[in-house]
Specification:
Blueprint (H helix, E strand, L loop, with lengths): L1 H13 L1 H23 L3 H7 L1 H11 L7 H22 L10 H14 L7 H21 L4 H26 L3 E3 L3 E5 H17 L8 H29 L14 H5 L5 H13 L2
Length: 278
Amino acid sequence: MIINILIKLKDLIELKEFRLRIISSIILLTVFYLFFKIGNPLFVILLSCIFPMIFIEMVKMSFDKVSISQFFNIFFLQSIFFIYLISKLNNFNFGFIIDYDFLILSSFLINLYYYKTYNDFITFSFSNLIIISFFSLIEILLMSNGLNLFLYLVLLISSMDVFAYLGGKLLGNIKIIPKISNGKTVEGTLIGLISTVFISFMIKGLINLDILSSLLLGFVIGILSFFGDMFESFVKRKKGIKDSGKLIPGHGGLMDRFDGYILVLPFFYILSYFILLS
């Protein structure tokens, strides 16, 4: 068995896609670390700028180019994100008539108004999850320990992604949901999940978790990350494409890297707000 794993590892290393994946990951981690060290407000502003790029990728999965209506949808949504973010950073109070909840509601109403620009209800639903995720991301990063909270998430979701990928390539035999994602295996998913729980335990001091909480939270985040990945794979399968884009060599597009966060961020924001910060 060990010999077979070593042979598969050798074959994996020889793959050009795998080498590109490693190089891209190192570059992404370096850029993330530099901006993380700079901290807020620049860090949260830069992350918010990823939103229109992800939406453009999502549009191009169904259409060759972004139409005028689709452009205005993305423009208005990004404008609301920036208004929301800047007002939060400056503790600006809109008063009784207009508040933060109104801005959040407006983003969904705008997206609904441009519903016809989406190819199907599945893509429209996915777009709303992305919107929810970005509002949750802003809220998490603007908490008193927001940078550590987000770093914790990045480490766990990356762990789930990396170890599930390696586990699947080296040990995977049983396809978990072949009709949605042919590359995902039961063995790889279990290895990724176990690794995520272990990493959560190892870095529990980052956000002051006790042992039981770290184990439970690591498990839930691993599961949600997996289902977020599956949802994006389902959308791509409906479109008949492998990757959301080609921006990141070896990985695909930005949405391929963000998919693990779309369910985790809303869940983690609610948990952080009501439990971790209580």
